[in-house]
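Issue: ligand-bound run for iron/sulfur cluster - logging full I/O for the record.

Environment: standard queue, default settings, no custom constraints.

Inputs:
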Amino acid sequence: MSNNIGILNYNKNQLIKLFNNIGLPKFRATQVLDWIYNIGCKSFHDMTNIGKELIDILNNNYYIYRPTIVKTDKSIDGTIKFLLQLKDNNTIETVFIPETNRNTICISSQVGCAVGCKFCNTGYNGFKRNLNAEEIVSQVLIVKDYLNSWTIQKNIITNIVVMGMGEPLFNWNNVSIALENLQIGNTQKISTKHITVSTSGIVPVLSKIINNFDYNLAISLHAPTNEIRSCIMPINNLYPLNDLLNTCKIYNKLHNKLITFEYLMLDEINDSERHAKQLIKLLHGIKCKVNLIKFNSWEGDIYTGSSMNKIEQFCKILNKSGITSTIRCSKGQDIMAACGQLQSQNK
Ligand code: SF4
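Outputs:
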């Protein structure tokens, strides 16, 4: 038998079943997962308490996946952007963002993206395929390897955002297995409170999973009206604002958590005082905060980012109305940290 099964593709319950099928008790699955997600083992040979017989079974049937790091770019602000190569030579991006009181990793869920937002370099490059669970979870594992952070003291990844390349709700099955696996073990686990899933608003999927959706929800909103949103995010034609915001209200009721609305500030498109007032009206009744994002320009883009002055004015209007609004400092501008840029640059 060849070792062709990626063990990272399974969540705990699935692995327990697989082990059960070959006569192994439940605690063996727990031990193996602990080695993988708590200790960072990349080889079954290093699992010193599971016995030679099990090591042989694992080696004959399974492998522990890591992508290849093709390139890293480090910003002066500490942000590190990774270009990772997968087994079929496709590449994806992962970004490590260190801050004063937390360290976030931004992971990708697809190779490319089919949503086609007009301001996004990934959308511009089109969609190739979904990532499988091992390709999603291994982005976190390989960054931990790179940062040499596999000890209790050095557990330096505190937050995860699924906000890289791709639309996670178009690949929810695999994304959810990966996120579940990141909560395995005690020392390295990242709780659901610190995991954020960002979506462009795939209403039917969100409605279906919303009851059990324990993560923080971020919505790429970027516009205060259907007219503007459909222009810059064609997905809005399928799932217009009214449907999306009604689903957000349900999330609010079920989970009692704030929703983050991401709002990219585009000059003359969505950044005037009138737009701010429209946004306040639109978000009325939703427990939320708004992240205003400065646009990172990329080769081939058709937009200009708003001036800092305009962003600050917009922010003030929202805050004055009672909607908490912050300006997200663009991290890693010097290394082309906007989604999809490193991949394009590498092509
Ligand atoms: S912004 Fe997100 S959803 Fe839109 S095209 Fe880019 S990756 Fe896809």
